[in-house]
Amino acid sequence: QSQLVESGGGLVQPGGSLRLSCAASGFSLDYYAIGWFRQAPGKEREGVSCISTSGGSTNYADSVKGRFTISRNNVKNTVYLQMNNLKPEDTAIYYCNRVSFGRLCTPGEYWGQGTQVTVSS
User: What pLDDT, in 10s, does the model give residues 16-33?
Assistant: First the structure.
């Protein structure tokens, strides 16, 4: 079995922060670029951010630039998404996936359960 497991979501007030984790099980992240995606109710899944294999290059959606930071620790086999100054429109289920790194960061076919992020007063 090989999969990515998302965690760290929760309920937070506007302006608050959360750090999401994407942990690999059954394979090593060292060889893969990873992206974070999110899907809000009634909306299509959209790309949030992605990071190259070494962590030397990153991409962000315009809506999260300056607020979110993607990082990785290959020794821990984990990719993170630090989310600051959260807004209600950030509310969604967040997923991570392998990607073909580039401007589009095209994800792989299979998705996990994701982790729910709710930003509300």
Answer: 999 999 999 888 999 999
